Amino acid sequence: MLVWTQIAESVTTPSMSSSQSSSRPIIPPEIEAEMTPAVKAFVEALIDHYETRLADLESRIQKLTPQNSSLPPSTQHPHARPARPGRDGVKKKRGGQRGHQKHQRELIPSEQCNEVIPLLPDACRRCGSPLAGSDAQPIRHQVWELPEIKPIVTEYQQHRLECPCCGITTCAMLPTGVPTGQSGPRLVAFTGLLMGHFRQSKRRASLFLQDLLKMPCCPSLTVKMQNQVALALQVPYEQLQQELGRQNQLFMDESPTKQANQKAWLWTAVAPMFAVFAIFSSRKGDALPKLLGHAFTGIINCDRAKMYWQAKRLQWCWAHLKRDFQALIDHPDKQVQRLGHDLMRQVKLMFQYWKRYRNGEINWETFRRYMRPVRRNIDSLLLRGKCSGNKQLVGMCSELHKHRNWLWTFVDVQGIEPTNNTAERALRPAVIYRKLSFGTQSESGSRFLERMLTVSETCRLQNRSAYDYLVTAVTAHFSKQTPPTLLPNL
Length: 490
Prior knowledge:
Layout: H1 2-12, H2 18-21, H3 29-34, H4 37-63, E1 160-162, E2 169-171, H5 185-196, H6 202-211, H7 219-232, H8 234-244, E3 249-259, E4 262-270, E5 275-280, H9 287-292, E6 299-302, E7 313-316, H10 318-329, H11 334-358, H12 364-386, H13 391-402, H14 409-412, H15 421-437, H16 443-461, H17 466-478
Helix pairs in contact: 5-7, 5-17, 6-7, 7-16, 7-17, 10-11, 11-12, 12-13
């Protein structure tokens, strides 16, 4: 009995390092001498069996990497590249490849240049004879340069004069639109854009103003300018928030953040031509009516988070579902894997039909006809998982099957997208901001951030300059006028 125990320990010890696991276990000589040929053959077969099993487990571990498509994109490194099998020996040189389209800066008309300097040769480069005249088509060479950065400082001298009749002194008032502080509207708008759009900290923003723009600034001054930008954007932000309740479709998503070391949630709602961001202290369902109002009757594209269920009509994101089905494929349980493969085949077919419809290859009615068997097959597969008795399948498949109408809104209503990628793309800059700054430190900081993110994404959707809009809004705020609206077509 002792002999068999020693043999088993030498074969099945799981604590071997990777270098040790590649070599076969050594049977002690005194034990090998007592073994009959049949026993020795059995031990050799046992060792081969465990070596094969160990190699299979190591191969499966290597496949479970962050590039697995069942994981959300936010868990992967931004520069990670998926493995490309069969191309290990093919390496391309750095730079542009043969046949690629050439990229170069086009010359602007000479009339638009600040200065045109004609260069004439004095003498012949061969014999030295003097040259005269000019070339009808000279070689044009343009050099782009930054202007010398020098701040514009305007001094207002407010004289205080004494009345000759009553002796009361009266001081002249500042002109309309001149701020009471020392920062003009363009400087305030630029600083707000630097912090809210380009994700710079207050200290970095102040250093940028000092080093590059030659303007004296400290972090506390950037906070003051941040609050001025937030006030200038209050009315346009509220207009957009009220417009959300009248939209037919919205893409929505949320991400955790912090406010003064307290947990908070950053929400986004994206319409076709504008987006609204909001920071709430909770992810619960009461945040949804705060953002959309109680009268919203449109369709929401979202993930399967339960706070969206209070809406009347939803479209669950098939990009999320595709990752969930990939997780089933990667599961060690064969029954789970089989259902995952069956579902994934139907999902790929669905996206093929959607791509053909989106590209104009098939019309709406043809797309719906193609989708009928796909819809029927997926519903039956979900029912199979629901009744499988496998705890890895029952929960997810029961939920999907119960609310299966929320899977197919994009097939029932023309113009609805099957994924929530629009909201995820809009939320990505805010997620990067949160990872860099760890959230906001005050209520006023949260209001600034949500309004700046709203302006940034809305101007992108409307192909407008965020800086030009901020300058106009801050100028109107200093003049105590109504700021320009961000509503589309107005």
